[in-house]
Specification:
1 helix; elongated; eight-stranded antiparallel sheet; mainly beta
């Protein structure tokens, strides 16, 4: 595993000890060992997650025998990721070919010229606008041609909406590994942009990702913007998927003769606005005291002024401040007239576009 991520793993363990305090702030960096789902009335958004060392699925899922069956199977109780078993016509997906080792997700194309692949996806389907990154090493194989057809596989990290078919795709075709290419695509419309990497994507890890805005998607390689797409921008929430497959001679190549393994050692996501304080259970504040509200901002949203609101029992209660500079903090004098309650939340929202917002994870008390 990359030394940077080993260091982050140790930092994460230290951070988990800090979580035992009654009130805490989230890390400034988007590294966390758990997905945190915000799920209150009218508020559905993710925090962030970091899966460098814990992919949540078992090693012995069953494969459905029903024709064209499609099933998520073999996930652990925390229900983050599921392996897909699907008799997909383009390439059957076998969950036994999705495994983990030494903190990495391994997605295999089995070789022997078999038309077969593997896929994992999040069980949550409410990802939306935000920042997405994954460190991937594409699956290398020694075969170049099988008969008259070039051989290879498709290595993919993407967002997908089941309800609309909208996608944001990052795909590496190993048949083109010498050309060092990666493809960025948005749907609807199948708008695709090719980018030439500095090195062979099957020989090393690159961090691929995208910032998904309401009107565009910026694509990144190693934290540098390398492409921007303004067409075919998804507007619906969905899930995240990694897959590795073969069998299309026109896109990715025919099945290779030997095993190819796609490796993933990190993936993370964060919304553009992320409330960091108050953001823990058992937080309690007195009336007529100062509460310093804190949040993080990412991407272009850093330049947006923000509105700050007080919510109670999952519903809007009253405004706290409007058109505030996006500095990441605001001192709120808690009014003496507020009703006593243990279910308050803070919502921070872009003043320029209401699609960018975040709300504190759990209710805090005002006494």
């Amino acid at each position: 595993m990359h030394s940077l991520f080993k260091s982050n793993f140790l930092l994460t363990l230290v951070f988990m000890v800090v979580l035992h305090s009654a009130c805490h702030k989230k890390r400034d960096q988007p590294l966390d060992p758990e997905i945190v789902l915000k799920d209150t009335a009218l508020i559905l958004a993710y925090d962030h997650f970091y899966e460098d060392f814990d992919w949540a699925f078992t090693d012995t899922p069953s494969i459905p025998m029903v024709s064209a069956a499609r099933l998520l199977c073999g996930y652990a109780p925390n229900k983050r990721w599921g392996r897909l078993s699907w008799n997909w016509t383009a390439c059957p997906l076998n969950p036994l070919l999705a495994t983990t080792a030494k903190g990495e997700l391994l997605l295999q194309v089995p070789g022997n010229s078999l038309k077969q692949g593997s896929q994992v996806e999040t069980l949550r389907h409410d990802y939306g606008y935000g920042v997405y990154r994954a460190r991937i090493k594409a699956g290398a194989h020694s075969g170049i041609r099988s008969g008259s057809q070039a051989t290879g596989s498709v290595n993919a990290f993407f967002f997908y909406s089941d309800s609309t078919g909208h996608e944001i795709d990052i795909e590496i075709l190993t048949v083109e590994h010498v050309a060092k290419k990666v493809y960025f695509t948005t749907h609807p419309g199948n708008y695709s942009i090719g980018y030439v990497l500095p090195n062979d994507p099957t020989s090393q890890y690159f961090e691929y990702g995208f910032n998904w805005y309401a009107n565009k998607v910026d694509f990144f390689v190693d934290e540098v913007i390398v492409a921007t797409q303004t067409h075919g921008i998804p507007s619906d929430k969905g899930k995240l998927i990694f897959n590795h497959w073969t069998g299309n001679p026109f896109w990715g190549g025919s099945p290779p003769t030997d095993v190819a393994t796609m490796q993933v050692d990190a993936v993370w996501h964060t919304p553009f606005l992320l409330v960091t304080y108050p953001d823990a259970s058992h937080c309690s504040f007195s009336k007529e005291t100062i509460l310093e509200i804190a949040w993080n901002a990412y991407g272009e949203i850093q330049s947006h002024p923000v509105n700050i609101e007080l919510w109670n029992n999952g519903k809007f209660f009253e405004p706290i401040a409007q058109n505030v500079a996006n500095t990441g903090s605001f001192q709120w004098h808690i009014p003496p007239s507020l009703p006593i309650s243990s279910n308050y939340q803070i919502k921070v929202c872009s003043n320029l576009s209401e699609v960018y917002f975040d709300c504190s994870d759990v209710g805090f008390s005002i006494r």
